[in-house]
Amino acid sequence: MLAVTLGPPDDAPLRFHRRLPGYEPTPLRDLPALAEELGVGQVLLKDESSRLGLPSFKALGASWALYRTLEAHLGRSLEPWANLGELAERLAPALPLRVVAATDGNHGRAVAAMARQLGLGCRIFVPRGTAAARIAAIEGEGASCEVVEGDYDAAVARSAAEAAEDRSGRTLVVSDTSWPGYEDVPRWVSEGYSTMLAEVDEALAARGEGPVDLVVVPMGVGALAAGVVRHYRRPGLADPPAILGVEPVGADCVGQSLRAKERRTLRDYRPSIMAGLNCETPSLVAWPLVAGGLSGAVAVTDEEAAAAMVALAAQGVVAGETGAAALAGLRVVLDGPGAAERRRLLRAGPGQRVLLLCTEGATDPEAYRRLVGRDPEAVAAGGAAS
Ligand SMILES: Cc1ncc(COP(=O)(O)O)c(C=O)c1O
To answer: Is the pLDDT of residue 384 over 80?
Structure first.
């Protein structure tokens, strides 16, 4: 039973995203070779390697949440506007404003990009050990970036403290995770992800194809998974799919919380190469949705994620470590002892259709080359192995 009430889907985020520069639906790819390998009817992959000019889906949540945060700060709607230039003009009288966020890389980069386009200041906090390429990408969007001595939770706490210290009230936190008293913004982040799922529905309808049977989603704090639950567990949806969440071994805070039947912070946290999923505590607002709506959760190793990157590259899909996690998780659950029962529960049989949410491309190109042995550009172009 779901512990929260789900209303009808709201297309406000989709209408918002359609007005952003460079918006277009990301591809929904059909991967027959993987369907054959996995013994399922069809594998569809939502390819988020290029989204609103960035290499991950995160811009969907960051842009919508920043927009809603600005409206909440001003206490009024920013409508009407037809493009980002007009939106920036409507916002100009309220400046200066500054945005802060914590990130493992992708969310912060997306917040920084949106802040730059709107003329806002931006400071991003990253955990110790964040790859230099991720920091450079954030700074490349014009934000300042501070490495926090600690893990993701420490970076989150630092971003909240930074805003609290600004007595002028001109520093706004746009976090993708939530804690008691900070719930609206992370809910907007999660709502923003609905655009990805609306695009899947539209693509399937355009092809005259019916709904999928299983959706596989990578999980960090669970905000994306909550968006997936909100979409596929909405009232009145006929034949809803199973939903499988995938996390790294060592950062499986949602899976461990599910087993404990309460939201927990990991005691034995170990970061993985799946940087976007390196989280220790499920998001407060995401938790009731994922707890009530997931069909299962699985943890994968770094080796399994890297193997999935290689397998996807062989199909012409550029998937970063976190992006490939969905395939890695699917491979794990559909194989080994007990697989027949898991296939039945997850609706992953020969005639059934699976949707993989491949949430990022080569967000750390150097690591991609090391793990896949090819340039991401060559993979994207369908070129031969170098
Ligand atoms: C590429 C990518 N995929 C998936 C996720 C997981 O999202 P969430 O933290 O909402 O569970 C993240 C989070 O940063 C990410 O960067």
So the answer is: no
